[in-house]
């Protein structure tokens, strides 16, 4: 047990999918896993372990923002031995050719700051995805037929952003979308020698000012979960 995860030793799988929303963790576990068992509910941050095609998988919430994800990912890696961590999140599109419900596989994640900034100090470390997971994710998206984009994303510290100038610069430099956790997940994966990938579903569009209706969100998230599972065990 850790300060934030009450799971018994051995009850977390080496492969962990991490949505921001703990309710999405429960939904994904009950929809995609066989025999899902709740292994954590400390602070309402659900974690479920089950199997997918015979492979052991945990789906555990990260909370919103990099400080929250950092707590859970650190404990999952350092105390529970997680070796493959795949974020399954929503994001806002920052390019015209990226549509609602499309999937983005984050090759890199830019940020203004992360919980690791104090470690890197003057170094502009480039957090990136595990190539094997990324390549397998691309193949899975092709097989399923999900429109999929691969490239850089932005991990923001705030949802209510007061820097439209910065968004414009990122759009001009090809950043595909914005979310709030991947950069720190990639930093931690690099530090601890584990594999990480962020698979993101576009839930809203910053340029077109469109958003998925709330009732469509869950059904639109299924492809990203499938892609994450297929990539993890490719
Ligand atoms: O849908 P999730 O995984 O929570 O991801 C996105 O949604 C939240 C903001 O609404 C942030 O956590 C952002 O990264
Ligand atoms: O962090 C996020 C997630 C979805 N949409 C956004 O604009 N930002």
TrEMBL record:
Alphabetical list of Gene3D superfamilies matching this protein: Nucleoside phosphorylase domain
UniProt keyword tRNA processing present: no
Binding site for phosphate: 20, 24, 43, 87-90
One GO term (biological process): purine nucleoside catabolic process
Family matches, as SUPFAM superfamilies: Purine and uridine phosphorylases (SSF53167)
Name of a matching Pfam family: PNP_UDP_1
Recorded catalytic activity of this chain's protein: a purine D-ribonucleoside + phosphate = a purine nucleobase + alpha-D-ribose 1-phosphate; uridine + phosphate = alpha-D-ribose 1-phosphate + uracil; a purine 2'-deoxy-D-ribonucleoside + phosphate = a purine nucleobase + 2-deoxy-alpha-D-ribose 1-phosphate
Classification via InterPro entries: DeoD-type (IPR004402), Nucleoside_phosphorylase_CS (IPR018016), Nucleoside_phosphorylase_d (IPR000845), Nucleoside_phosphorylase_sf (IPR035994)
Chain ranges of the Nucleoside phosphorylase domain: 16-231
Active site: 204 (proton donor)
Top-level enzyme category: transferase
Site (Important for catalytic activity): 217
PANTHER family membership: FI09636P-RELATED, URIDINE PHOSPHORYLASE
Biological function: Catalyzes the reversible phosphorolytic breakdown of the N-glycosidic bond in the beta-(deoxy)ribonucleoside molecules, with the formation of the corresponding free purine bases and pentose-1-phosphate.
Similarity comment: Belongs to the PNP/UDP phosphorylase family.
Assembly mode: Homohexamer; trimer of homodimers.
Official protein name in the record: Purine nucleoside phosphorylase DeoD-type
Species in which this protein is naturally found: Salipiger profundus
Name of the gene encoding the protein in the UniProt record: deoD
